[in-house]
Amino acid sequence: MSEAVLVDADDVGAAEAALSAAYSEMRLVAGSDRPGRRTRVFRTRIGPLTLDDAEFSFHVTADMDPSDDILLTRVRAGVLGGSLPGRPAERHTAGGVLAFGGRRGERIIGDIDGAHYDVVALDRRLLAAVAHGGDGEEPVDLTSLSPHSEDANRHLFDVLSHVRREVASNPHAASSPLVTGPLMRYLAGCVLAAFPHTAELPSTVESAGRGVLERALAYIDDHADADISMADVAAAARVTPQSLHAAFTCQLNCTPREYLRKARLHGAHRDLVAGDPTTVTVADVASRWGFGVVDAFGVLYRSRYGVSPETTLAR
């Protein structure tokens, strides 16, 4: 397999410059002073597609200008995450798939912690062509950083594994338009099947108006630490609870209650990171964010962030 070296450096500034040239202008901020800050990114071309093998040996956050492409990532080791405006941050371990730059014009925020992952740059215009059966149609945005279900994630992870192992590693396949053309459309179709997106809005959600989700998300984010009900959220969004539920399940593939729980976990995570372990307890933080049972909070927190809340507070 023929690879081009995008960056292989110990210096964060050199990595930032090289990756800004390869993707969009970005800023990298190292999250710790531990030694061995190695960044390696190797690029393979598959017809018009690029497949990058990226590895960061340290913790770094990336703030990147909007991308012309959707950056589809397959996590092979470590932790990779990010956030969308108005949404709780996400962190995914090996086996996860994320789509950065899914919404046009939005900055890309990434959280890379000792991660090894693949990146496929997918032309977003291809999503519209596949979704609408032709070119020049309404653009399609992805409305989530991660797939809508474990099955969808697993399927897309396997598809990306096939692209790397069976196509990118074979010079004949990687350079043949008869292979790469259908492959690109197939990959776009798999992405549309795996992620919630703007091309599939049922009439119940359209009739409620495009601002329903924005109003609901803003209300939840502003009141996540308060005792609110789904009726309160629906009233703030100016729709019935049934229409609210439909908007969330269609566009975010989660229920309003599930989103509220994620927002509260995110708030608790922030407080634990900023808290002084000599004066703050996990029970205090859990109670503030509506988790009455500390053990249950610990299970949810570990599932979301990969460590216990006690560990986060101690750091």
Describe the protein's architecture and organization.
This protein has 13 helices and nine strands. The protein has 315 residues and is of the alpha+beta class. Strands 1, 2, 3, 4, 5, 6, 7, 8 and 9 form a nine-stranded antiparallel beta sheet that branches. The protein folds into three domains: 191 residues, Jelly Rolls (Sandwich); 53 residues; 53 residues, Arc Repressor Mutant, subunit A (Orthogonal Bundle), CATH 1.10.10.60. Helix content is 46%, strand content 23%.
Brief write-up:
Helix content is 46%, strand content 23%. With 315 residues, the chain is an alpha+beta fold.
Features:
globular, alpha+beta, Arc Repressor Mutant, subunit A, 315 residues, 13 helices, nine-stranded antiparallel sheet, Jelly Rolls, single chain, 3 domains
Can you lay out the helices and strands and say which pair or pack?
Blueprint: E1 4-9, H1 12-22, E2 26-30, E3 39-46, E4 49-56, E5 59-64, E6 69-83, E7 90-92, E8 97-100, E9 108-123, H2 124-132, H3 150-168, H4 171-175, H5 177-194, H6 203-208, H7 211-223, H8 230-237, H9 241-251, H10 256-274, H11 282-288, H12 294-305, H13 309-314
Antiparallel strand pairs: 1-3, 2-5, 3-4, 4-9, 5-9, 6-7, 6-8, 6-9
Helix pairs in contact: 2-5, 3-5, 7-8
Compute the CA-based radius of gyration: 21 Å
Number of strands: 9
Question: What is the average per-residue confidence, as pLDDT, rounded to a whole number?
Answer: 86
Profile the largest sheet. Answer: 9 strands, antiparallel
Cα distance spanning the termini: 42 Å
Question: Which regions contain 5 or more consecutive residues with pLDDT less than 50?
Answer: 201-209
Class based on secondary structure composition and strand pairing: alpha+beta
CATH class of the largest domain, please? Mainly Beta
Cα shape: globular
How many structural domains can be distinguished in the coordinates? 3
